Amino acid sequence: MGLLLVAEATAMIVALLVAIGYGGPGINSFLYSIGITVISGGILFLFGRKSSNNIAKRDGYIIVTLTGIVFSLFGSLP
């Protein structure tokens, strides 16, 4: 989940570049959102780096569901 959040923060950089290009007022909100997402993803990555990589079908369903929910929450920050 941590690496997925870092990937989402990377995707937010595109929106930041568009905001910079158009000189929009939301530049700071994108910067804060990217920072919060990277820090949260880094913390989750550090906590989960020693876990086993064996994923059952049930675990896969949970990961997909949580990813959708967490991406929605972090994507709505700006």
Q: If you had to describe this structure to a student in words, what would you say it looks like?
A:
Helix content is 79%, strand content 0%. The protein has helices spanning 2-22, 27-48, 57-75. Helix 1 packs antiparallel against helix 2 (27-48). The radius of gyration is 14 Å and the shape is elongated.
Mind sketching the topology for me?
Elements: H1 2-22, H2 27-48, H3 57-75
Q: Largest sheet at a glance?
A: none
Give the termini separation.
20 Å
> What's the pLDDT, averaged over the residues?
89
Portion of residues within helices: over 70%
Oligomer: single chain
Name the helix and strand elements from N-terminus to C-terminus, one letter apiece. HHH
Using the alpha-carbon principal axes, give the shape.
elongated
Tally the structural domains: 1
Tally of strands: 0
**Strand content of the residues, in percent?**
under 5%
* Cα Rg: 14 Å
User: Which residue ranges are poorly predicted, with pLDDT under 50 across at least 5 consecutive positions?
Assistant: none
Count of runs of 4 or more consecutive helical residues: 3
- Sheet/helix structural class: mainly alpha
Features:
78 residues, mainly alpha, 3 helices, 79% helix, elongated
Nutshell version of this structure?
By secondary structure, this protein is an all-alpha fold.
